[in-house]
Specification:
heterodimer, A: alpha+beta, ten-stranded mixed β-sheet, B: four-stranded antiparallel β-sheet, 7 helices, 10 strands
Chain lengths: ~850, ~230
């Protein structure tokens, strides 16, 4: 076997660049999977880590529905319920002035907190801190090297509140580092956040039997939350987003698998004669398979390891993008640090090696099961795919039907639609080689003049070498269709969001007091606004996050005119009495994402924790909304007031008289003495633009992934063409011998490649449109609960064809340049 | 021909057809062919192009299977052997020489000769290979790759490779078809010497000059073997 290995290995090393491109194909695919995997894992690790730090050993949490708890509740827990492992907490997101970073500030009671959390506070001083100009500087603990700290002082901001803290010592948490957590005494936190006499929540470690005792003592507006269930529900919110990213990364791997198949297949096809010779001399099919499979495993392993290294680099960028999106769309996330875990490496090794072996198995078995006499016949290989061509269309159709069944399977899962999607892509990509073959056959009937001979030869060759180029053409069509499909989906999404904003945002000016903890709009200020001469109507609103067993759920309490209500895109439950039932009868509207998530419809009831206990609100209608994927319940302000005590207003919308100057109105509102500090005020147009900017930011990561898929595909087609050049040296030498110039032969190669790119592009257009339709109608609806319009953009379609042709032409340039006429003839003779 | 020596090749009633191009019609190449050969025989098979010479050799090598009839080589019915078993049988009992040499281009001259020995698990071939290379004028090229050898050198190497592990049967398909007269004669002499040492050599050729060195001369016509009228 040693000499057989040597013979095949030396043959492999005769084309080092081809080996490098094969390794690169695997590496490119694996790197995208690893990059996304690390980014997802890091984001989730940060989520869990933050949970571990914040919760400590707590199993349950007491919290109010919309309000902070009265601190007397802590006495009920400790004294009346007799629970020892309990700690009151103040918790808020704050900003560090000067750095802009968002941190979590915890106010804790050191005398009780040690039972739950393992904070080490290395105090420099027990003094309350030096006296500033007008205030005592409060002690604060945080990690060493805090950005924004100056001379042991740091200024924290929360809404309109600012407070200088004295750096009292270092906070260390055994086993954890890099957390964005600041700790102070609970009383200082109450003062800073204007929460005197109140607390955010009480953390508890409950022993068996304590839960029922505690529940019996709790007031109606207080909820006992199981932290395990609660964090699971929060984590589920971003699950669909992470699954989508993983699926996109797997798409890159599928493209890479095509390329590995193409590369390995070519390596085998190129050596069919050698394999035939070895077979004639007594090397069995299983021996040859073993050697070739070992070769594939080694190449795959090298590519996978390279991919893991590349992926680790890529992860630095992707983690920032993924973490930023999760933080802004789903739940608070600190600063995830990309870490390559052993599990990620194991998964990458498995995926990379499995993909390589799977891709290589078919061509290897096809060649080693062939009789040596067939392998020794040089042209036998080129007809294999040709014989399969009549089966391509029925096979594609059959697989397509199976894929459609998986995609439309009425099970609320993402795995089946994605599996169907990949199956569909694989099936329809087979049409690229088929189209190329049919085009080639159609070209054969032409009787060209002299100047058309070269194009005719190119067209004939394009169909004749399908065994070598077919898979690369399929891979290119997959990559281009994925690019087109995702771009169409994003454009459709953007169009729908724009349309939704245009309908939903009906007022001329919007203002809000900003982030969590901000002061409410005072009645005096609202009265001033109502007094503006250009005002037709003032609408006020408030969004409140409620903690439910299904995870966080947002209630939007609004006082709006009929005109504003008409901006809701009702998709189920539209009827003439809707406004009246919403405005007067206390019925609520829910978003389609909530309707899908909780399987609710008009006429059903949605249960919410209110200040009067749990209440089931009747659902009047379902509306389209892209502002929250975990769901919104919108209710009239009067309905809210019946069930909730919180009367604060934090946002308002101004409907102006026709012709009123919006910019001047904004200036007038800002200059009012009652305007709250840090108030955000935007014109309708600005708000739309800002919203679309956030949308574009969110989809930056998909742009990166699309680019990577195209790079992978171009690498593959380059590899296939380089391989083809090597294999066809004999043919080119013959052409050179009968008078073809080097330029003509190069032109022939470029033309053939362009035709392959054209075939791939023409197949990619319908495939990409189908892909976008599935993403829009199935994947997005199941992932996020958002339906949207499907756009057909022919400009994008032509761009996709152009991209495909350009990629193929670019890939042909180097091989065409590399052909050197006379030298090729000499090398052929040597062979 | 040694009449008392062992029969190493025995074909009975062998027929073989091929499909013609893409059409469904078939062309019969061999029809009920009988043929035997013994150890030490040097048999030349003649006939015009397309008469079935290479088909017969492929059947003898187990590279192809007959439609009907039996092909026994070195005591085994090749048609009854499975794919890998047939390969192992060929590896041990048959040496092949092709018109276009078919040397392994990525192995040196010495390594090409080592390959059949290695495949058959024969150790310590160094001295034997060295003496063969010296005897047949290839000692100076022992570390060269086949691409750098002349046609004659390549074919001599191909014959040596076919015989190096001592198979009872060597099959040569047009071994001189790609060589000039002088080099062709050297290769035929080499094959003759193998027969003298007891190897059964079957050579397909359309060259009368090459065939003249053989002890038996047969010709395929209309799918059956008959005497080659000289």
């Amino acid at each position: 076997m040693g000499l057989v290995v040597l013979a095949l290995a030396r043959d492999l090393l005769r084309s080092p660049w081809q080996l490098v491109l094969t390794v690169l194909s695997v590496a490119a695919g694996v790197s995208v999977v690893v990059g996304i995997d690390i980014a997802n894992d890091s984001a989730m690790a940060e989520f869990h880590r933050a949970g571990r730090i914040m919760d400590g050993a707590a199993t349950h949490r007491l919290s109010g529905s919309t309000r902070a708890l009265d601190e007397s509740l802590y006495r009920v827990v400790r004294v009346d319920a007799g629970i020892q492992a309990a700690a009151p907490v103040i918790s808020a997101r704050v900003s560090i002035a000067g750095s802009g970073e968002r941190w979590t500030l915890m106010g804790v009671d050191p005398l009780s907190d040690y039972r739950l959390r393992n904070f080490h506070l290395d105090q420099f001083t027990d003094e309350p801190g030096p006296e500033g100009e007008a205030e005592i500087l409060w002690p604060l603990f945080g990690p060493a090297g805090l950005a924004g700290m100056k001379d042991d002082f740091v200024v924290l901001e929360h809404g309109s509140r600012r407070q200088a803290f004295h750096w009292a010592g270092t906070l260390t948490i055994p086993g954890e580092s890099g957390s964005r957590l600041l700790v102070t005494d609970i009383s200082w936190a109450q003062d800073f956040l204007a929460m005197q006499g109140r607390i955010s929540h009480v953390d508890l470690r409950l022993e068996p039997g304590e839960e029922s005792v505690l529940r019996a003592l709790l007031p109606d507006d207080t909820r006992l939350i199981n932290l395990g269930i609660h964090h699971g529900a929060r984590q589920d919110m971003s699950r669909a987003f992470r699954i989508n990213l993983t699926a996109l990364s797997l798409l890159a791997l599928v493209v890479a698998m095509f390329l590995v198949y193409s590369a390995v297949s070519f390596q085998v096809i190129r050596r069919r004669r050698l394999l035939g010779l070895l077979g004639a001399m007594g090397v069995t099919g299983s021996q040859a398979s073993l050697v070739l499979l070992t070769e594939v495993v080694l190449v795959g392993a090298f590519g996978t390891v390279s991919g893991i290294l590349l992926g680790s680099v890529l992860a630095d960028v992707l983690t920032v993008l993924v973490g930023g999106t999760i933080d802004s769309l789903y739940h608070e996330l600190g600063n995830p640090v990309p870490v390559l875990s052993a599990w990620s490496v194991a998964k990458a090794l498995l995926v990379g090696l499995a993909a390589s072996v799977l891709a290589g198995l078919a061509p290897i078995l096809a060649a080693t099961r062939e009789a040596p006499v067939v392998l020794l016949h040089e042209t036998a290989g080129s007809r294999r795919l040709e014989r399969l061509l009549p089966w391509l269309l029925p096979s594609a159709l059959g697989i397509g039907v199976l894929a459609a069944m998986l995609i439309l399977w009425p099970e609320d899962t993402l795995v089946l639609p994605f599996a169907g999607l990949f199956l569909l892509i694989c099936a329809l990509s087979l049409l690229g080689p088929w189209l190329l073959y049919q085009g080639s056959r159609a070209g054969a009937v032409f009787r060209p003049g002299n100047w058309q001979l070269v194009p005719k030869v190119a067209l004939g060759n394009a169909g004749r070498h399908l065994d070598r180029t077919g898979v690369a053409v399929a891979a290119l069509s997959v990559a281009v269709s994925a690019t087109l499909g995702i771009e169409l989906m994003i454009q459709s999404f953007r169009f729908s969001v724009e349309d939704w904003l245009a309908h939903y945002l009906r007022a001329d000016v919007y203002l809000s007091t900003g982030q969590e903890g901000s002061p409410a709009l005072t009645e005096d200020f609202l009265a001033e606004l109502r007094g503006l001469p250009q005002l037709r109507y003032l609408s006020t609103g408030r969004r409140v996050d409620l903690k439910t067993d299904h995870g966080p759920l947002t209630v939007f309490a609004v006082d709006m005119p009929r005109e504003g209500f008409d901006g809701f895109r009702i998709i189920d439950g539209q009827d003439p009495g809707l406004w009246s039932r919403f405005h007067r009868d206390g019925e609520v509207l829910i978003t389609e994402s909530l309707a899908l998530r909780l399987r609710l419809a008009p006429g059903d009831r949605v249960e919410l924790p209110t200040d009067r206990g749990m209440h089931r609100f009747s659902i009047a209608a379902v509306y389209r909304d892209y502002s929250s994927e975990h769901g919104l319940v919108t209710m009239d302000r009067r309905t809210w007031n019946r069930y909730f005590d919180d009367r604060r207003q934090v946002s308002a919308a101004l409907y102006l008289a026709p012709g009123a100057d919006v910019a001047r109105t904004i200036g007038t509102v800002q200059s009012r003495p009652g305007a709250p500090y840090g108030m955000f005020i935007r014109s309708n147009r600005d708000l739309r633009q800002t919203s679309l900017a956030v949308f574009d930011h969110t989809f930056r990561i998909t742009a990166v992934l699309r680019l990577l898929a195209v790079i992978v595909a171009v690498t593959g087609i380059l590899s296939a063409l380089m391989a083809l050049l090597l294999e066809r040296r004999r043919e080119f030498a013959m052409l050179s011998a009968i008078g073809f110039s080097r330029r003509q032969i190069g032109g022939l190669l470029v033309l053939e490649s362009g035709l392959a790119g054209l075939a791939a592009g023409l197949v990619a257009v319908p495939l990409g449109m189908l892909l976008s339709l599935i993403l829009i109608r199935v994947i997005n609806v199941r992932s996020f609960g958002w339906s949207m319009e499907s756009l057909v953009n022919w400009n994008l379609a032509w761009q996709a064809v152009a991209l495909s042709v350009a990629a193929a032409l670019a890939a042909a340039v180097y091989p065409a340049w590399r052909f050197r006429g006379g030298e090729e003839i000499r090398r052929v003779r040597e062979d | 021909m040694a009449k008392d020596s062992e029969v190493v090749i025995d074909l009975q009633g062998v027929a073989k057809s091929y499909r013609e191009g893409d059409s469904t019609s078939t062309r019969r190449i061999l029809t009920s062919l009988d043929f035997t050969a013994r150890a030490g025989d040097f048999v030349a098979i003649g006939g015009p192009s397309g008469s079935g010479k290479s088909t017969l050799l492929n059947l003898l090598a187990g590279l192809d299977r007959p439609d009907t009839g039996t092909v026994r080589v070195a005591g085994e019915d090749l048609a009854a052997l499975g794919g890998d078993a047939c390969t192992r049988h060929r590896r041990r009992y048959i040496g092949l020489v092709f018109q276009f040499f078919n040397l392994v281009p990525t192995l040196t001259v010495t390594e090409n000769l080592q390959l059949p020995l290695a495949l058959n698990g024969i150790d310590g071939p160094g001295d034997r290979i060295d003496s063969m290379l010296s005897e047949f004028g290839l000692a100076e090229r022992r570390n060269a790759y086949p691409g750098t050898l002349s046609g004659g050198e390549q074919q001599r190497l191909a014959v040596l490779r076919a015989a190096v592990h001592g198979p009872p049967v060597v099959l040569a398909d047009e071994p001189t078809g790609n060589l000039d007269r002088e080099r062709g004669e050297a290769v035929i002499a080499l094959l003759g010497s193998l027969a003298e040492q007891g190897t059964c050599v079957v050579m397909a050729t359309h060259s009368r000059r090459a065939a003249s060195a053989a002890g038996r001369r047969l010709r395929i016509a209309d799918g059956v073997l008959g005497p080659w009228d000289w």
